Amino acid sequence: MTDKIRSAALRSVALAALAVAGNAVFAEGIEVTVVSGAVGNAVANFEALVAPWEEATGNTAVLVPMPASTTDQFGQYRLWLAAQNGDIDLYQTDVIWAPQLADHFVDLTAAAQEAGLIDANFPSIIESQTVDGRLVALPIFTDAPALYYRTDLLEKYDAEVPTTWDELTETAARIMDGERADGNADIWGFVFQGNAYEGLTCDALEWVKSWGGGQIVEADGTISINNPNAAAALEMAAGWVGTISPEGVLAYMEEESRGVWQTGNSVFMRNWPYAYLLGNGDDSAVKGLFDVAPLPAGPGPDGASAATLGGWNIAVSRYSPRQEAAISLAIYMGSAEAQKQRAINEGNLPTIQSLYEDADVLEANPYMARWQDVFLNAVPRPSAPVGADYNEVSTLFFTAVHSVISGSSDANTALAGLQDDLEDLLED
Amino acid sequence: MSSHPAAVQARAGISLQQQRARAAFWFLAPMLVMLAFVAAWPLLRSITLSFSNASADTIFNGNWDWAGWKNYVEARPRADGSIRWRGVLVDPKWWNAVWNTVRFSVMSVALETILGLLVALVLNAEFRGRALVRAAVLVPWAIPTIVSAKMWGWMLNDQYGIINDMLLQLHLIAQPIAWTARPDTAMIAVLIVDVWKTTPFMALLILAGLQMVPRDMYEAARLDGIHPMRVFWRVTLPLVRPAIMVAVIFRLLDALRIFDLIYVLTPRSEGTITMSVISFQNIREFGKYAEGSAQSSILFLIIAVFVVLYIWVGKVNLTGEGGR
Q1: What is the pTM assigned to this prediction?
Q2: Domain limits at A247?
Q3: Which ipTM did the prediction report?
Q4: Which conformational region is residue A58 in: left (phi greater than 0), alpha (psi within -120 to 50 degrees), or beta?
Q5: Quick check: A248 and B157 CB within 8 A?
Q6: A251 neighbourhood in chain B, CB within 8 Å
Q7: CA B187, CA B100: separation in Å to the nearest integer?
Q8: What is the Cα–Cα distance from A224 to A290, expressed in whole angstroms?
Q9: A337 and A408 co-located in one domain
Q10: Which residues of B touch A424 (CB under 8 A)?
Q11: Which residues are registered as beta bridge partners of A291?
């Protein structure tokens, strides 16, 4: 009995010694952990994505998948970073997080400069991740939403691709009614992200901005949300729920709306570019039957098409004990090679300018050739003017919007209350 | 040289009673230490933080300051001379969460007690395969809440959920219902899942009480030809009352701090957000440790008041001594 224990103990000591020696001598075999939200096929593609880096360096990259809700991810990441957790080396960060988490990340300027990534990227995207002169996260893909529409159904009903929200509402209702009369009971007109979370902030910001209702908090810090255009935009969206959109949209995030769309049960969908390749996958009911267009515009002279700027970046934790390997993986994930792989396999928009002329990328995602303008003119969420309060500002906004679209409040009351709450929050 | 008992006692310095108490203390000590560590210390820390201005950035490095009662209530003069009240105690969002929690607790515990009692009466009867049924009834209770909440979330889904499908097939509804999304059905959805999950727990506790009822009382009632309903109201119910009261208090404590079910099933819905969820949201999503701690402290107080009231009004005997 004691012999057994002793030999087991000896064995583990020997193993530990071997591991330490291995690290010291070869400086490889390091395990770098990357934490990221799990949306689309990002988890499935991760192995293939990092394989070239693993081969070149002899290290391994491990993905820690997180919930799809960005609000939940942010809470967890801030907790880990505030506690100076050294287990996670790389964080995949939303474009809006840079100002809030900057202090916890390593400055990547020098490494990115050396790899030529600063010049290769779109300057505005690099700028969005630069805080006080430090590049705190390296862009790995950008995001600007699209209006997905069913080419077959639009053709069948002789409808144009809608360029205003009114046209969208009208076309969606007409096609939905027609299809239902033909016995397709499950068809809906329009699906979007209506759950109370960060995604609703993005969707609603587009409605409000496209109606000329401002961007919640303007760049100079003015709280602008309580205005008639914003109220009208929200009333419009409230009118969709239960008519052209299923009531369940009030609980949908990206993946739930894609579920309805990709099974062929919606005429239109508002979603990010990742849904393009998945919709053309072999298991998709809408394969080859859809295309994308910029989101519709609001009415009147103030009306314009607005797209919320999304995008994800990779940041290196200051508390990582494996910083050298972590930075090398970050540089790889931001490189043209990795971004091209992502664009082809996951349908993500690259942040490297030259990839928009790359034949392979454009063959997989033909629409990307016309998407540069969309994301370069995209509207940012107010993360810069509100700083550390962004999460609460966003929560107040999407809670108010949710109360309007779920019918428990009217837009004027909700926005007046929101204005007060925001003033309360931001005055100190 | 008389060895009088009193003399022996005087020599030892303690009575038998004291000896027993001392021994009991040493047996209890490990548990008291444990409780101090896992219950008292976190509670004191919450209360401490609720009087501070700690945030996600300062909580770990200790750079926070005292803020007095500011997190609870604060009168803030504004530029125009008016006064605006701030703090948890005047926050309508907090009181909405309190109302949701109380509403949920009362309804779920009432439903679970009635259903639990019915299930317990059935399980107490003699029938073939009783052991199997007893085990089967416990299954929902054995499933972790996170798992059952997610499972029910899918079952209640408006597009592919089986509940809507069944209701549609039975022609009870014409359109699928988005149970968790609509403000008017979100609380119903949460109640359905909680009742499904927790009724077995109530049934089990009440069943234990039922088995303590002496069989000969039923025998006597039957010989006297008393109607079974009368037997239930006059014999069974009074005798299992102590068991029910204890079961209810356990459930009430659980229900008042409900978190996981709502967090998974209807996150951030104003119609179902509870005290625990709003406190979690403040701490975790907004990084406002001080405000979240103030809410936890009030949550603790509210639960304490509920329990004291309940024990006092119901004259519950928690010691298990005496009684009937």
Answers
A1: 0.83
A2: 146-308+382-426
A3: 0.78
A4: left
A5: yes
A6: 158, 178, 180-181, 266
A7: 9
A8: 37
A9: no
A10: 84, 86
A11: A149
